[in-house]
């Protein structure tokens, strides 16, 4: 028996329960991973609340890092291998989990379990956003909302190293200091400053070729307003709730804008894409190009409080659960 978080219905943090569950041996192509650290991500709250529906009852969590404990038939991995995952299935909030071997990535030397669990999903998100959804170039300006969050801090460092001019939004001066230390050239406190006015000042009235928006409802309209004609709106999350339905004529009226709604799962769908994306992330962690800020740690039994803090925007950087 292992301890695992389960939900029988969708709702607030209180629907999550830590239960003793049985875990069988891994089948063909599967491995058992004993989790050493578990990543907490905003998408977990969407699954818990029902915004992104899952069949019930279900486990929660997409990201973790640990040791291979057992292997099924036809698997190249061996017991004791250090592995991480973030797109292998649901149920990471657990002491151990059975997962398909082809969706696991090996953790390189120089990266610890906590680092791996804190960086893989967020790092792969930053990777596909700035390298493949809209490839940022040196000298280009861009806007990223929630700059002090887990993805935001990685995005800022990565984009700075490319040579982009990175503008970020935050909700406090404390978070502004953190964002500046992680690559943001300009930081806008949306509680005290008007985002569009500041973007116009920074760009000399030209606006932006791309906006990366993981906040959703609260920022959707201003994100569109910050784009220059034929600019791209990358809407990749709904931290404040889902935006209202969009009248496509608005895109024409604002300058023939483009909009995309990408997901990390689509951008790492093939094993080759998964391995390349994780390699891009881990190599930058090993080289020191990406600093992983683990600013919150919670015991697995405190998962309800972890979700409350995440949803109330009390967290910054990455958060992990410790089984």
Automatic annotation (TrEMBL):
- Limits of the Enoyl reductase (ER) domain: 11-321
* Pfam families (alphabetical): ADH_N (PF08240), ADH_zinc_N (PF00107)
Keyword Oxidoreductase assigned to the entry: answer is: yes
Q: Which UniProt keywords apply?
A: NADP, Oxidoreductase
For this protein, the record's InterPro entries field holds: ADH-like_C, ADH-like_N, ER, GroES-like_sf, NAD(P)-bd_dom_sf, QOR-like, Quin_OxRdtase/zeta-crystal_CS
Protein name listed in UniProt: Quinone oxidoreductase
């Amino acid at each position: 028996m292992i301890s695992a978080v389960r939900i029988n219905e969708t709702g607030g943090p209180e629907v999550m329960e830590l239960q003793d569950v049985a875990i069988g041996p891994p089948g063909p192509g599967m491995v058992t991973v004993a989790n050493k650290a578990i990543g907490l991500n905003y998408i977990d709250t969407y699954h818990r609340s029902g915004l992104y529906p899952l069949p019930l009852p279900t486990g929660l969590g997409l990201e973790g890092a640990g040791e291979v404990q057992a292997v099924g038939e036809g698997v190249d991995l061996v017991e004791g291998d250090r592995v991480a995952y973030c797109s292998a299935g649901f149920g990471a909030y657990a002491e151990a989990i059975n997962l398909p071997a082809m969706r696991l990535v090996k953790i390189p030397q120089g990266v610890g379990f906590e680092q791996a669990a804190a960086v893989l999903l967020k790092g792969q998100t930053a990777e596909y956003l700035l390298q493949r959804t809209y490839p940022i170039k040196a000298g280009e300006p861009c806007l990223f909302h929630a700059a002090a969050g887990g993805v935001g801090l990685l995005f800022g460092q990565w984009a700075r190293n490319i040579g982009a001019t990175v503008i970020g939004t935050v909700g406090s001066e404390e978070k502004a200091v953190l964002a500046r230390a992680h690559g943001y050239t300009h930081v806008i406190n949306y509680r005290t400053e008007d985002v569009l006015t500041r973007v116009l000042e920074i760009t000399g009235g030209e606006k932006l070729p791309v906006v990366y928006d993981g906040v959703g409802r609260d920022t959707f309209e201003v994100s569109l307003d910050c784009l220059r004609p034929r600019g791209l709106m990358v809407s990749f999350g709904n931290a404040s709730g889902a935006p209202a339905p969009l009248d496509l004529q608005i895109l024409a009226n604002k300058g023939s804008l483009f909009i995309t709604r990408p997901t990390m799962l689509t951008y790492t769908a093939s094993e080759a894409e998964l391995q390349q994306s994780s390699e891009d992330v881990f190599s930058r962690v090993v080289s020191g190009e990406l600093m992983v800020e683990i600013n919150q740690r919670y015991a697995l039994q405190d998962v309800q409080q972890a979700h409350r803090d995440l949803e109330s925007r009390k967290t910054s950087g990455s958060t992990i659960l410790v089984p």
